[in-house]
Amino acid sequence: MIRSPGVDGPLAQSPADGQAPMVELRGVRKSYGTLEVLKGIDLRVARGEVVTVIGPSGGGKSTLLRCVNLLEPVTSGQVLLENEDLTVPGVDLDKVRRRIGMVFQQFNLFPHLSAIDNLTLAPRKLLRMSRDQAYERATTMLDRVGLAGKADAYPRQLSGGQQQRIAIARALMMDPYVMLFDEVTSALDPELVSEVLDVMRDLARSGMTMLCVTHEMGFARELGDRLVFVDGGVIAEQGRPADVLDRPQNDRTRQFLRKVLR
Amino acid sequence: MPDDSGYHFDPDFIVDHLGDLGTGLLRTLAISAIGMAGALIVGALLGAISALRVPVARQLITVYVEVFRNTPLLVQIFFLYFALPETGLQLGGFTVGWLSLLLWGGAYNVENFRAGFEAVEGGYVEACRALGFPRLAAFRHVTLPIGARIALPSVTNILISVFKNSSFMVAISYPELTETAVNIVAVTFRVFEMFLAIGIVYLGLVWLMSLGARAVEGRFAIPGGH
Ligand SMILES: Nc1ncnc2c1ncn2[C@@H]1O[C@H](COP(=O)(O)OP(=O)(O)OP(=O)(O)O)[C@@H](O)[C@H]1O
Ligand SMILES: [Mg+2]
Prior knowledge:
The structure holds two protein chains of two kinds. By secondary structure, chain A is of the alpha/beta class. Chain A contains nine helices and ten strands. Chain A has helices spanning 61-68, 93-98, 115-126, 131-144, 160-172, 190-205, 217-223, 241-246, 251-261, and strands spanning 23-32, 35-45, 50-54, 76-81, 84-85, 100-103, 178-182, 209-213, 226-231, 234-239. By secondary structure, chain B is mainly α. Chain B has one domain (11-220): MetI-like fold. Chain B has nine helices and no strands. Chain B has helices spanning 12-16, 18-51, 57-69, 73-83, 93-118, 122-131, 135-165, 177-188, 191-220.
């Protein structure tokens, strides 16, 4: 995977080469009953761009992510993947989701399947990949996340960090256009955080398009092309990570950063 | 038993009736096997429909479960055997035997399976959907295997109860093991030997089934525990 030219900078939301963004949200609103959680989100993620999302608890970060692959149907607005509107009737969302990888805070590996079977389930059942081909690919993928020796282990026999790396490998098996990460290091013991971040770093450097909700400001600063601060269901501020982190323009961003960086 | 109690214990007497008792035991095993298999299938299938919240079907299933869990098995057997003929549907003892056991055990197992499926953490299903699995496929690959494991101990308990409850067929004079024993006792008055003997048979079979159930649970246990 090659990162396209011109999308590395902070202005990646409007690619200079005129390329369509990989993911685009247009005026996305999401309500649960009378509670409006997203109040009009506009966001473009260019091909190969790494966007990190920060913000206070309950601000709508997870909801935003879940609207991208439409695990949550949006109340209004549009979600586009490579310029295809996913919110129009007739779109086969199950097919679309194959191309959007998602990694969760709680790993959510299938506990009744070994590591390698966690990886091969979707390619075999959804892509009709042969058993041998799927196992070969899964073996390569496990190696890539540093867990070649754990193919036959079951999730509950593994540490949180190992489980999370397998969850990332599972998502990568489907060759996604974009990867969504929802606080994937928050449930880990501190000493296990770095092994997961290392995998994400490799992924970012390989040119994967990534949208990451995170509390890891170091990760956001180092690898994020852009930082998005979400609060109260809106994008309150965004920009180059160093700019937002060091010189926040918005009061709420300042308050939030004072708390988390203390 | 001492002679002065007026009862002379005579174990040989069982041997004289081994043929009849064997036939009775085969009938017990037959209606139990069908009843248990049926209760397993009906429970899993209707439990799944219920957990998937299929409209209308789910409400009908609830009615079935409530009716059969909240009435005595004996009344259900009488209903099938004596009341249904009034509507023109005449069922024999064998049919009422396995059918009543199936309906009774099925109702309990619907609940066991439904509860098992609903106990599966939402995150697993969500991860499966995020990979691109349609709702039913996610149920089949994730909710079913995990939920069935959760339900297994309570399901096997009900299946063993189905077997024990086969002796209720005494009520409709279907000559399974207990009814056979009752009939022999009616002419020989060898109460003690007879009920001791069939008690041991039931005990041994239930013990075997429990062993089998534990083995199945062990075989399907999720490595690393819960
Ligand atoms: N399924 C749901 N039904 C009702 N309300 C919901 C649902 N999911 C989320 N919410 C509400 O939406 C709001 C935003 O939730 P969300 O999980 O997106 O926040 P978040 O920014 O990810 O927070 P956190 O940092 O704690 O993960 C919260 O008030 C939450 O209670
Ligand atoms: Mg969240």
